[in-house]
Structure formats: structure tokens, C-alpha cells
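PROTEIN DESIGN WORKSHEET
SECTION A - STRUCTURE
LENGTH: 290
C-ALPHA CELLS:
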């Protein structure tokens, strides 16, 4: 990848390692649907006026349908189900399941681009990265539930389709405009339920977690994702989910007192190696057009 691609990749790995901890904190006092509203509304209130003033919204009218679909796949459905799943699953297990996004992305891209040859090096990288994630969380399956796993399966599908829509249907649209419109549509959809179920009191800890989710993980994260997707393609962009669990577990160790396991010590290097291989330009690969 280019230097810019690697910088965006590293930044997004850190930004998207934060939500697992923040969601865990927030759902102690806020139900998952209300949390979706609180994550999207502040971003919409900031980005929509700015994008309107800079004329980033008017050119999006012809592709509003695709932007709405992107918002549904990337925000509306996954965030609801992830919040619900984290009530049943550990943050480590949630991170492990999300890390399957690159595998599904490669399969999706191969199905929609029959001429694309997924090189052996990239396939090996995906396998090594998946193994690294499994070791990172110590193959812990305690406290899981069938419903939680199904919910995370829906999250994985949504997270796979989001970057694919950006790359194939919205390649020339304004990145900030896409994020502004999509989060605004999701916020409007969740407004009736979120307002009526908003807790009477929120602790400072919960408010801080929601602020990080909204401003850092949503506004900053998805602007970085769009830039990364356009720089390196949708399949490679989703490899970021391999490193997120490392950040998530590091935060868990520091703030929640979770123990460091042998799986963490061995798994993290494998994740890095897998990410490098999966994003490499393998011999014989047919790269998609910019």
C-alpha cells in the first residue's frame, strides 16, 4: 500500500479499537437503540451544516438511495445488533467475530469480480490474521449465547457491505457528505424510540463513552474509512478489523483489569503479519480500477 494508505490504516485500527470498551460502558445505562441515536445525532448536527455550507450535499442528490443503503448497512443495523450482542458476549468475543469481516469481503469481491484473482499470499494473510485473532482472545468462548453470535453475524455482513457500497457505487461522492447524510438518516430513524427511552440521568462515565463513540469512532473513524477504502480498495480496508481486537484487549487490560493471556502474546504478532500479507499485491492479482 502507499504511505498514505498505511497511515490511514494505522489510525483506523486505533480508532476502531475503542468502541468495544465504550459500548460496554455505555450499555450499562443506555439501551442499544438509544445508544445508536446518541452516537449519530451529534455527528449529524456537526457535519450536516458544515457540508451544506461547503456545498458537499447538493451533488449527492442523484445517489441518495445508495447513501441511505450505506447508512443502513454501516450504522443503522450493525450498531443496534452490536450493542445488543455486547449484553450477552464479552468484548473479546465481539472483536473476534468482527474480525471475520475481511474474509467475507474477499469472498464478496471475488463473487462480484469474477476476473479478480485472489493471490495465495493474500489468502495466507487472511488465514494467519484470523488465527491470530483467535489466539489473541485465548479462544475464550465463555459467556456466549446463540442469539449474541447470530447478532454479530448480522454485524459482520453489514460491515462487509458498507465499504463495498462506497467503493462500487459512491466512488466519486464527497466522503464527509456521505457520512453526514447517512448518520443523519439513521438518527432520524432512531429518534422516536431514542427520545422516549432516554434515561433520566447519565453518569459522567457514560457521557464520556458516548462522546468518544460519536466524535472519535463515528465522525473520525468513518471519514478515515472512506479515505482508506478509496486508497486501497474495500477488501484491504476491512483488514483493519484484524488489529482492532489488539487495541480492544489492551484497553480492557488497562481499564477493566483483564488478564494478559498467552494467546495475546502470540496472537498480536500473527495479526500484524496477517495484515501485511493480506494487503500485499500478490503475483498474478488483477487489481480493481482506482
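SECTION B - SEQUENCE
RESIDUE ASSIGNMENT:
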Amino acid at each position: 500500500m502507499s504511505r498514505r494508505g498505511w497511515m490511514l490504516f494505522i489510525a483506523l485500527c486505533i480508532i476502531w479499537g475503542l468502541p468495544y470498551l465504550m459500548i460496554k460502558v455505555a450499555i450499562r445505562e443506555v439501551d442499544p437503540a438509544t445508544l445508536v441515536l446518541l452516537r449519530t445525532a451529534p455527528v449529524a448536527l456537526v457535519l450536516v451544516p458544515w457540508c451544506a455550507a461547503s456545498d458537499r450535499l447538493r451533488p449527492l442528490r442523484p445517489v441518495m438511495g445508495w447513501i441511505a443503503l450505506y447508512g443502513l448497512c454501516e450504522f443503522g443495523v450493525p450498531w443496534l445488533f452490536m450493542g445488543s450482542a455486547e449484553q450477552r458476549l464479552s468484548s473479546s468475543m465481539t472483536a473476534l467475530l468482527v474480525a471475520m469481516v475481511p474474509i467475507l469481503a474477499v469472498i464478496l469481491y471475488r463473487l462480484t469480480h469474477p476476473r479478480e484473482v485472489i493471490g495465495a499470499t493474500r489468502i495466507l494473510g487472511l488465514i494467519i490474521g484470523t488465527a491470530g485473532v483467535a489466539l489473541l482472545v485465548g479462544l475464550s468462548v465463555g459467556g456466549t449465547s446463540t442469539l449474541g453470535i447470530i447478532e454479530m453475524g448480522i454485524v459482520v455482513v453489514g460491515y462487509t457491505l458498507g465499504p463495498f457500497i462506497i467503493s462500487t457505487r459512491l466512488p466519486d461522492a464527497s466522503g464527509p457528505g456521505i457520512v453526514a447524510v447517512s448518520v443523519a438518516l439513521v438518527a432520524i430513524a432512531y429518534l422516536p424510540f431514542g427520545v422516549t427511552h432516554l434515561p433520566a440521568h447519565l453518569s459522567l462515565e457514560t457521557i464520556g463513552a458516548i462522546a468518544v463513540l460519536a466524535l472519535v469512532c463515528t465522525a473520525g473513524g468513518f471519514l478515515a474509512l472512506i479515505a482508506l477504502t478509496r486508497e486501497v480498495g474495500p477488501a484491504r480496508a476491512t483488514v483493519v478489523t484484524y488489529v482492532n481486537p489488539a487495541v480492544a484487549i489492551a484497553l480492557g487490560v488497562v481499564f477493566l483489569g483483564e488478564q494478559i493471556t498467552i494467546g495475546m502474546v502470540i496472537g498480536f504478532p500473527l495479526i500484524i503479519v496477517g495484515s501485511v500479507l493480506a494487503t500485499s499485491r500478490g503475483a498474478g492479482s488483477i487489481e480493481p480500477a482506482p
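SECTION C - NOTES
The CA atoms of residues 135 and 263 lie 4 Å apart.
The chain has one domain: 3-121+145-235.
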